[in-house]
Amino acid sequence: MVKSIEEINRRIEKGEAVVYSAEELKGLLREGEDVSPSTVDVVTTATCGIMSGTVAALTVPVAEKGVFRKAESFWFNGVPAHPGPCPNESLGIVDVLLYGTSYANMEYGGGHVLRDLVEGKEIEVRVEADGNIFENHVTLEDLVYSKLLTTRGAFKNYVAFVNGEPDPVKTIFSVTGLKGPYKEVSVSGCGEVNPVENDPLLSTIGVGTRILLNGGRGYVIGQGTRSTPEKPNLSVYGDLRDMESKYMGGFKTSKTPECITSVAVPIPVTETTMPYLRVSDDDIELPIAEIHNRIPFASGTYGDVWRDKDHEVRYVFEKCIDCKVCDVETLCPTNAFTTKRGIDKMRCYNCGACVTICPGGAFVGSCGTMEIEGTDVPITLRQSNRSRANQLAKRLQKMIQNGTFLLGKKMDEI
Ligand code: SF4
Ligand code: SF4
To answer: Domain map of the chain by residue range?
Structure first.
């Protein structure tokens, strides 16, 4: 049976569409349920991860018209941005590109600025122009234009990293420095719920496909940079004003701050897509590479990362031994933890770093192991948040069920 997007949309409008989140679908398939295009219309998939290719295009009021001629340098809360590409001459407002990976210091970068904006916080902007400095304070409301896009994101799958040498390596794939030789593994990727993993041929994902980006409405622009048929990724965009802060933000690492971004994509269930929607964590290979040369030399699966593991990390207050300095407070990549308030669930990325860092064993979360040359090596950092991805897929599922989100027909292949 060939079901068209128009037919599915008619069913959505009538409130008759059967919609599963990817998490639900995989659960049903594991239980041996019969799922087919005749019983399901749409599956909502999602990923939440470190997406270094995130950039915002913003139009920022700085001064009255004619006060300065041309912005040469620009900072948001000390994070450098890039004025232009249009000349911005004598307007007092400046078009500027802010990279998610730019940073003011090791604690604060572009990803943090973007989340602060979405949370409605006031941001200090500084402009160097005509040899002078101009300052203003703005909120998201003040920005005339505020679009977010990814040059590459929602990767189908990724590579896990280990350090084969004795000295720790400061890298974006570790919070404290990746310890070796082969002491720990750092992983990325949401496995079986990832959008591209569920439609790897991109038969339903293309230019113009409607999505959720960080919880707000967005679109697929095309494929991302360095996308290949074997490892496709997407370029997407949306408006910052629609977004929810819990799906985005900055992420501190042992090298430089990174940027968290989340993408949800509805996959129409057809005879073409159904075989791929059956993919499970255990089917998806996760190559393991040495951090120095990035060449894979071993492999496991996403089952090692997510299957029967704790997707959320918990804090057990009674186990805290009250260290003189709480390393988790300092090192938590999203500043989600304080000994006073515990874990802020809206900030926590469920990365698992605290489970290893805390000497008191006050954090509970089984993150699994990967086998390397006969030894089970612990996964100590998850740079993707499966729990949040599932939340975003659920959000999209609800929007489709209540008729506020219709599927978009792709305008072109990517
Ligand atoms: S590191 Fe762990 S045990 Fe030490 S103060 Fe922090 S939460 Fe408590
Ligand atoms: S899992 Fe622990 S270290 Fe990671 S974000 Fe949550 S509280 Fe911070």
So the answer is: 54-149
